[in-house]
Write a structure and sequence with these properties.
The protein is an all-beta fold and about 120 residues long. Helices cover about 0% and strands about 50% of the residues.
Length: about 120
C-alpha cells in the first residue's frame, strides 16, 4: 500500500522559513514525479513545485523562495520555504505519480496523495 506522509507544517511569521517533508512508502518512486500542491480556504488546490526525471518546476508565485528536493535513500521529498508570505498560508499536500507527465501542474495527473500539513503565515 502506497503512503505519503507530510510533516513540518506550523505557524511562522512573515519572512520566516519552514521545511516540509513527505515520506513515501509502499513503493520506490525513483523514476516518478513528486510534487507539492497547496489549498487555501475557499480556493482550489494549486500547484507549487514538482521534481521529475526531466527537471524541476515551480509555480511563479513561489519561484526564488521555495526549493523542492528529494532524498532517494530516504524515499523523502522536501519543500524548503523561505521568505514566507501571508498568502502562502494553506494546507500543503504531497503528491506522486509513477512516471513523468507533462501535466505535472494538474492534480488529476497524480495517483497518490498525502493527508496534508497546515502552514500558517502570520502577517
Amino acid at each position: 500500500q502506497v503512503q505519503l506522509v507530510e510533516s513540518g507544517g506550523g505557524l511562522v511569521q512573515a519572512g520566516g522559513s519552514l521545511r516540509l517533508s513527505c515520506a513515501t512508502s509502499g513503493r520506490t518512486f525513483t523514476s516518478s514525479t513528486l510534487a507539492w500542491f497547496r489549498q487555501a480556504p475557499g480556493k482550489e488546490r494549486e500547484f507549487v513545485a514538482a521534481i521529475t526525471v526531466v527537471g524541476i518546476y515551480y509555480a511563479d508565485s513561489v519561484k526564488g523562495r521555495f526549493t523542492i528536493s528529494r532524498d532517494l535513500a530516504k524515499n523523502t521529498v522536501y519543500l524548503q520555504m523561505n521568505s514566507l508570505k501571508f498568502e502562502d498560508t494553506a494546507v500543503y499536500y504531497c503528491a506522486a505519480r509513477d512516471s513523468y507527465s507533462s501535466s505535472y501542474r494538474y492534480t488529476a495527473a497524480y495517483q497518490y496523495w498525502g493527508q496534508g500539513t497546515q502552514v500558517t503565515v502570520s502577517s
